[in-house]
Specification:
The complex is a heterodimer of chains A (about 700) and B (about 100).
Chain A (H helix, E strand, L loop, with lengths): L7 H10 L2 H16 L4 H22 L1 H12 L1 H11 L3 H4 L12 H29 L7 H27 L13 H5 L4 H20 L9 H7 L10 H28 L10 H28 L13 H12 L2 H9 L5 H19 L13 H6 L6 H18 L3 H19 L13 H28 L1 H18 L48 E4 L4 E5 L10 E3 L15 E14 L3 E10 L7 E8 L8 E8 L15 E8 L8 E11 L10 E10 L1
Antiparallel strand pairs in A: 1-10, 2-3, 2-4, 4-9, 5-8, 5-10, 6-7, 6-9
Helix pairs in contact in A: 1-2, 1-3, 2-3, 4-10, 7-8, 7-10, 7-12, 8-10, 12-13, 12-15, 13-14, 13-20, 14-16, 14-20, 15-16, 15-20, 16-19, 18-19
Chain B lengths: L1 H8 L5 H12 L5 H14 L2 E8 L7 E7 L1 H19 L2 H7 L1
Antiparallel strand pairs in B: 1-2
Helix pairs in contact in B: 1-2
The chains are: A alpha+beta (about 700), B alpha+beta (about 100).
């Protein structure tokens, strides 16, 4: 190694890894020092120090980008939990970190890719697309690069993390996808949750980094940042403001609020909820939505891509307060939307109208200077301006009605929201005198509070109607009548007991059954005649019971569900959960007449582990309530060799032999016990019983 | 210290002499990269300005980046000096040493 000549690798490090703004001067200085007699070790130390100091400075400059990427990536597992909840765990678990996982259909994997990319691209869209409209400091050619780069980095990062996790815990960690809940996953610090966040962080960081605004060196970014102007700006600021990304600000607030609603807002359970609790819940939802909207707006406002940092006609405080007049309506609209309610567009339109009114009142408009007193002749010749906004509003309302007719609630709500905003915008006169904008915050808060009250009441009403079931029934009746009237085929109204329909919840609020009087049983009530050629088919319509030790039978504290366990999940904390199903036969069967009972089940349980079903025959009329145990049969689709993640229920039939002689002479009830392996007993299996078939001798 | 060094060096203030001066004053090695990071921060605050000189052969064709103090920088130095002097005067044992 020659003295005075630096190591080639160290030179490469300085020229390629040191930020460009200081690279030339620094590299020249180091060469000059080397020529003056410094050693190679000195050059290496300087190179390492320069790289570290350079990137620390750059990261410090781009703190908002870094913070946003970190925050967004931390929500990665929560996002997975969201789409896991939407599709029963199929999407989340399809490319899981196990070698034995099924990569399944291409469509499932494509959907998984799209959902992940959507999550990665959302902050880019949030921060960058309005950025081009604002200061034009970005070149449009950077957006495709950012999208492509983030997609590439995400999948590369995912692959590397995937391999590392397999190496770390072969064949990979067993991730309980089914137990994921968005709120819990947002704060999950398990190894797999941290590993899930890594590709998101890298991808979001790369995308934001590529599209961040270029900062000048002379004069510096700091100088620009310090130069935040006063709120009262020139009269032409409003148009500039709207061009600079008012849409982006509102979108940022709306997305934050919606995200919070997805994580937080839930309809109450149908039992054990007090009215005071509902009121507290409504207040919490509304306040949290307002804060989330303000936070989203603030993040966008202060992001590196935002031109508001250097130029804004109003203060951030005032803008956040005024836009919160819209965010407070979002929880009500969201809850109505999840219930498939026809009121969703109405509340969305109301919120958007509030936003239009408040913003119009807060932000100064461009003055339209009159050029003196125009001559009457000149004014008569002047063409009146076309009021396109009126046509636009009517079109939006029409679109909303059409979408509602087609049951496209989201499109309907969106159209009506745009219409509401446009109408309010033109209805409200712009602020003429904006000299006291800085003193207007107190008034704005008072107005916001006046709007928040009704918003809380509406949210409470939504929660209460949901609580009592009125909302569901009303929506169900209206939807059915609309469909029946439009299609004129009342007999072909589809039964919507699954999917995203509002009828989903009918399971939770079943109509009260009429009491049936059962006369004393006689020999004529025997359901199964000896030597019958056809089996006696009994469709299962009994309850499912859930209870915990020390109870061995459903007691006072047991939880009862009517419906199908395939559509809901029951979890317990503090001990193993026992599940039973009971079917009353409505008559008696002599044991001697029955040779075999077969039971048809639907299995949609996606947790690994063998499940067995035990069958008991009981006679509730006999003294002591005797029961006969027929044994247990394993569910074949839950056995290790046959287990797979199920998108739809798998149907199976289990058979049980009936002994001819036993102490139990006859039975009028069938009890099914769900038996599971240790370690998976904290949640009930998603297995439903369809029917029993009783075979005669 | 860096601001004082830039003032001291005058028109000849670029990375190499600034680092050497700091090394001489402090008596230990100085990372040139850290000096540049500090100078860029000060430039962003408007305390110094920078300009590029001509590229030279001994620097591998790289230009020197000269730094000059601004009025704001001078005011900052003067303000810091006033504060420091006031604080020094507040230390009794050091008064005795001076006497």
């Amino acid at each position: 190694m020659k003295r005075g000549i630096p190591p080639a690798a160290a030179v490469w490090v300085v020229e390629h890894l040191v930020p460009r703004s200081r690279c030339d001067g620094l590299a020249g200085d180091l060469l000059e020092e080397m020529a003056a007699g410094r050693t190679s070790q000195w050059y290496w130390r300087q190179a390492a120090g320069a790289v570290a100091a350079g990137w620390l400075g750059v990261l410090k400059d781009q703190r908002p980008v870094l913070l946003l990427a970190l925050l967004w990536a931390s929500l990665g597992p929560a996002w997975i939990a969201c789409f896991n909840a939407l599709d029963g765990g199929v999407l989340a678990s399809s490319p899981s970190w196990r070698m034995d996982s099924s990569w399944g259909e291409i469509s499932t994997f494509s959907m998984w890719m799209i959902l992940n990319l959507l999550f990665v691209w959302t902050p880019v869209l949030l921060c960058m697309i309005p950025g081009t409209w604002i200061s034009r400091s970005f070149s449009r050619s950077r957006f495709p690069l950012a999208f492509l780069l983030s997609a590439f980095v995400y999948f590369a990062g995912y692959f590397v993390t995937y391999v590392l996790m397999i190496v770390y815990a072969f064949p990979g960690p067993s991730i309980p996808w089914q137990r994921f809940t968005p709120l819990a996953e947002a704060a999950d610090i398990h190894l797999w949750a941290l590993a899930l966040r890594v590709p998101y962080l890298l991808a979001v960081l790369c995308a934001l980094w590529v599209t961040r605004p270029a900062r000048g060196t002379a004069g510096g970014s700091g100088a620009l940042r310090l130069a935040r102007p006063a709120a009262a700006a020139a009269a032409s600021d409003w148009k500039a403001f709207s061009r600079q990304g008012l849409g982006g600000l509102m979108l940022a607030g709306l997305l934050s609020t919606l995200f919070l609603c997805v994580l937080l807002c839930r309809m109450p359970q149908f039992h054990g909820v007090l009215s005071v609790a509902l009121l507290v819940k409504a207040v919490l939802y509304v306040v949290a939505a307002a804060l989330a909207g303000a936070a989203g707006t603030a993040v966008y406002w202060n992001s590196s891509s935002s031109a508001f940092v250097s130029h804004a006609p109003v203060t951030l405080d005032r803008f956040a307060i005024d836009s919160a007049a819209c965010w407070v309506w979002v929880p009500a609209a969201f809850l109505l939307g999840t219930n498939d309610s026809l009121l969703t567009p109405l509340v969305a339109g109301l919120g958007a109208a509030m936003l239009g009114l408040r913003l119009r009142a807060a932000i100064p408009d461009a003055a339209t200077p009159e050029t003196g007193a125009a001559e009457l002749f000149e004014r008569a010749l002047r063409k009146p301006r076309r009021e396109w906004h009126g046509l636009f509003t009517v079109l939006c309302v029409l679109l909303s009605v059409l979408a509602l007719d087609r049951r496209l609630l989201l499109a309907s709500a969106l159209s009506l929201a745009v219409a509401g905003f446009a109408f309010a915008w033109k209805y409200k006169a712009p602020l003429a005198d904006f000299s006291d904008l800085s003193q207007g915050n107190r008034q704005a808060v008072a107005k916001l509070l006046r709007i928040t009250g009704p918003a809380v009441l509406v949210t409470l009403a939504v929660l209460v109607f949901g609580f009592s079931g009125i909302g569901y029934r009303l929506v169900g009746v209206v939807n059915s009548s609309v469909r029946a009237a439009s299609e004129l085929q009342p007999m072909q109204v589809r039964s919507e007991t699954s999917g995203n329909s509002s009828y989903h919840s009918i399971i939770l609020w079943p109509p009260e059954q009429k009491k049936r009087l059962i006369p004393p049983l006689t020999e004529r009530n025997l359901l199964l005649t000896p030597r019958a050629t056809h089996p006696l088919i009994i469709d299962f319509d009994g309850p499912y019971w859930y209870f915990q030790a020390p109870s061995r039978n459903p007691g006072l504290h047991a939880h009862q569900e009517i419906g199908t366990p395939v559509d809901y999940r029951i979890k317990a904390s503090g001990g193993p959960l026992t599940m039973e199903a009971r079917q009353k036969l409505g008559g008696e069967v002599r044991l001697a007449d029955c040779s075999e009972i077969s039971m048809t089940i639907a299995n949609r349980n996606n947790r690994p582990g063998v499940i067995s079903l035990a069958l008991l025959l009981a006679d509730s009329a006999a003294p002591g309530k005797r029961a006969l145990y027929l044994g247990q049969q394993p569910v074949v689709s839950s056995e290790p060799g046959n287990f797979a993640v199920k998108a739809s229920p798998v149907t199976e039939t289990l058979r049980y032999a009936v002994p001819q002689r036993a102490r139990l002479g006859r039975f009028n009830q069938i009890i099914v016990m769900f038996l599971r392996e240790k370690g998976q007993s904290d949640s009930a299996p998603e297995i439903a019983i369809r029917q029993f078939a009783l075979y005669a001798h | 210290m860096i601001l004082l060094t830039v003032i001291h060096l005058g028109d000849d203030a670029y990375g190499v002499p600034i680092s050497r001066e700091l090394e001489q004053q402090r008596g230990r090695e100085v990372a040139v990269g850290s000096v540049y990071a500090s100078l860029e921060r000060m430039e962003a605050k408007g305390l110094v300005t920078s300009s590029l000189g001509d590229p030279t052969q001994e620097r591998g064709g790289k230009a020197r980046r000269y730094f000059r103090i601004t009025e704001a920088g001078l005011r900052q130095v003067a303000a810091t000096r006033t504060v420091l002097e006031k604080m020094w005067r507040g230390l009794p044992q050091l008064k005795e040493e001076r006497a």
